[in-house]
Design a protein that fits this description.
single chain; 284 residues; alpha/beta; Rossmann fold; 2 domains; six-stranded parallel beta sheet; 10 helices; 12 strands; binds NADP nicotinamide-adenine-dinucleotide phosphate
Length: 284
């Protein structure tokens, strides 16, 4: 006999395509760990269907959602409120339901900040930073570094107009635009370098001709592989270097906290992410 199961609480991720997202694995592990009977679903939503999908979240009672490429910017027009970071960065990666309202957050800013402070143990106050890339991740990183008190933020990317918009996010630090070709020349003199492009995913190195040195901090936001060619070479040169897994877990943890109001089980989330990357790499 079929028995009626009470409706479960659910959240999920909206993106297109949704082939390699680790979010379902990380959040499902976290819900299990803290004893929440919540579902985390994957919604592959084409850009033209985004408005309908958000109406669907409202109508069906989702408690929230993650938002990934290519919807992080366009989703903002469909929400009722935006957090300060979402508004400044111009991108939403987390939706929270409060009553009938949908509120957009950007947890990449907090995720990068927490990774730097809690995992890497780096205090970037007074440092000269160089950020490669001018997309959503670069905007979040510049916002976080500026808030943490770096002295200078240089941004290097292919598109000069996008680059200067990212530089403009530096409210306290000295901002500087660098041409794509000039990144390799600027890199040796920076104190902290962040790769916020996808170059290095699988293989590749965004700055193969740069020799990294002792005392530099190098962060690659790419997390697959967990130690990219950039990270390996930077470590070989004596730099402190990290891949993107730490930020990935901290931005997910911030979403978890927003939805559940509970402390996120960081170790469980981190282990689930590492395991999922290992599985992805075996399957490809
Ligand atoms: P995005 O908005 O698409 O921006 C990508 C940036 O990289 C753009 O400036 C783009 O330049 C540049 N770029 C892409 N391919 C390039 C190439 N071959 N040569 C030079 N520049 C190139 O993407 P995003 O959301 O910022 O994400 C960037 C990377 O960070 C992705 O790999 C993403 O997975 C990673 N990420 C990691 C975390 C984490 O938690 N670890 C969080 C967010 C993002 P154009 O505009 O000229 O194309």
């Amino acid at each position: 006999m079929l028995r009626h199961r009470p409706a479960a609480n659910f959240v999920g991720v909206l993106g297109w395509p949704l082939e390699h997202t680790l979010s379902p694995v990380i959040h499902s592990a976290a819900f299990r760990q803290v004893g929440l009977d919540w579902l985390y679903l994957s919604w592959a939503v084409e850009p033209d269907d985004l408005a309908d999908a958000i109406s669907g979240l409202r109508a069906l009672g989702a408690l929230g959602a993650n938002v990934t490429m290519p919807h992080k910017e366009t989703v903002m027009a469909h929400l009722d409120e935006l957090s300060g970071d979402a508004r400044t960065v111009g991108a939403v990666n987390t939706i929270q339901r409060i009553g009938r309202k949908l509120v957009g957050h950007n947890t990449d800013v907090d995720g990068f900040r927490r990774f730097l402070e809690e995992d890497a143990g780096v205090d970037p106050r007074g440092m000269r930073a160089l950020v490669l890339g001018a997309g959503g991740a670069a905007r979040a990183v510049v916002r976080a570094l500026d808030g943490l008190g770096v002295a200078e933020v240089a941004v290097a990317a292919r598109d000069a107009e996008k680059t200067s918009k990212v530089v403009a996010l530096a409210a306290r630090a000295q901002g500087r635009s660098v041409s794509w070709a000039g990144a390799a020349t600027s890199a040796p003199s920076c104190d902290i370098f962040v790769n916020a492009t996808p170059i290095g995913t699988g293989t590749g190195d965004p700055l193969p001709d740069v020799t990294w040195r002792e005392g530099q901090v190098v962060v690659d936001l790419v997390y697959d592989p967990p130690a990219t060619a950039l990270v390996e070479r930077a470590r070989a040169g004596g730099s402190y270097a990290w891949g993107g897994l730490g930020m990935l877990v901290h931005q997910a943890a911030a979403s978890f906290q927003i939805w559940t109001g509970q402390d996120p089980p960081l170790e469980t989330m981190s282990a689930a992410a590492l395991h999922a990357i290992g599985t992805l790499r075996r399957d490809h």
